[in-house]
Amino acid sequence: MSDGTRNSTAVRPRRAIERMAPYRPPTGGRTELLRLDFNENTVGCSPKVTAFFQDGFPMGQLPSYPEYAAARTELARFFEVSEDEMVLTNGTDEAIQVVVNTYLDANQECLLMRPSYAMYRFYAEVAGASIYELDFNPDTLAFPLEQMLETISRNTRLVMLANPNNPTGGGITRSAIERILDRATHAMVLIDEAYYEFSGVTAMPLLKEYPNLLVSRTFSKVYGLAGLRVGCLFTQAANAAFLRKGQSPYSVNAVGAAAARVAVQDQDFITRYVTEVLAARELTEVGLDKLHVPYFASDGNFLLMQFGERAQRVVAGMRDKGILVRDRSHEIPGAVRVTIGTREQMTRFLTALREVLAQ
Ligand SMILES: Cc1ncc(COP(=O)(O)O)c(C=O)c1O
Predict the structure, then answer these.
(1) How far, in Å, is the centroid of ligand 1 from the Cα of 180?
(2) Do domains 30-44+267-358 and 47-263 have the same CATH topology?
(3) Which residues are 111's β-sheet partners?
(4) Fold annotation for 30-44+267-358
């Protein structure tokens, strides 16, 4: 007699998936709080994008699959590349995924920094790659350029670097990137410029000269459109053709593509927000000095702070006060990463922090 269960065993996933530690960032409960935990724009997107949604989004576009011609033309013009040197992506995350899918087979070597943006390791692990991680200097969190140059070998297939790096905040110079590209002639090198607008350092001018260079940008940070998931990947046209081959044809939705087009037209908004954040970063540093909280110099819209034993208590205490910050103590003992918002928001942060530290 049957007991109602089917006589089949559960199919196991690939070993690479079984071996991975889960990565589960929060997907709810953040919108009402002061979000200083994900390096987003803390005031929202350009009013021109808001107005576009309120008055102008052509609803007739929704029943059909997205058309990208206008977005491609306008974004390529804005980023000063030709359309065949650009791949529109569903955020940087998809850019990383497409790069890994295109260049990295199982067991091939991928070189990353530790700690860095989690999704490099995530997609490399999904691919079953051999992952090599270099540590930042444990005291200063400086980038170990010489060590990286020594580590790159003929077997290195892919190097992925965030510039500036998240969560450490430090950046590398264009000449350091050139030395890496010169050394990694058998590898593709992805420079993730998610925080470029805050640092002003870019590898984009190197694209013409280096066929092994990929540069990514995102609309999730300074542009304030993280919810729409739009990014761009830049590389020489021959590489871009391979990347597109391995990409889902409609991965960027019509709303995101349209919003990105509008967003790049309001550079005044971007300049004003960057100026505000840089002033707020300085204000925060002065406040932290007064509270005797050490932090690492940052080229991005975030600061990595050192709370020692108190790290988790600080994260929980700030949450109780309606302010989200990110515990990074699993990567650097005692470290908490705080997004820099406006001066007003950071004044609120410092007041709350003073109270939490006094508890
Ligand atoms: C270095 C870096 N790259 C990429 C991203 C995510 O970008 P996107 O939202 O475009 O996928 C982040 C987000 O925290 C980041 O820190």
Answers:
(1) 22
(2) no
(3) 132, 159
(4) Aspartate Aminotransferase, domain 1 (3.90.1150)
User: Cα of 18 to ligand 1 centre, how many Å?
Assistant: 25
**Is 218 in a helix, a strand, or coil?**
strand
As beta bridge partners, residue 88 has: 232
Ligand 1 centroid from CA 216, angstroms: 10
Q: What is the mean pLDDT of residues 297-323?
A: 97
Query: What would be the CATH architecture of the domain defined by 47-263?
Result: 3-Layer(aba) Sandwich (3.40)
Q: What is the mean pLDDT of residues 316-338?
A: 96
Q: For strands 295-296 and 302-306, give the pairing.
A: antiparallel
pLDDT reported for residue 6: 67
Task: List the structure tokens of 225.
Answer: 């459109």
Which pLDDT value is given to residue 21? 86
Check if 91 has its Cβ closer than 6 Å to any atom of ligand 1.
Answer: yes
pLDDT in tens, 110-129: 999 999 999 999 999 999 99
Cβ of 41 less than 6 Å from ligand 1: no
User: What residue's CA is closest to ligand 1, atom 7?
Assistant: 92
Query: Taking the domains of the chain in order of start, what are their residue ranges?
Result: 30-44+267-358, 47-263
pLDDT of residue 327: 95
Name the closest-CA residue to atom 6, ligand 1: 92
- 158 membership: H or E segment, kind and range: strand 156-162
**What is the position in ligand 1's atom list of the atom closest to the CA of 91?**
10
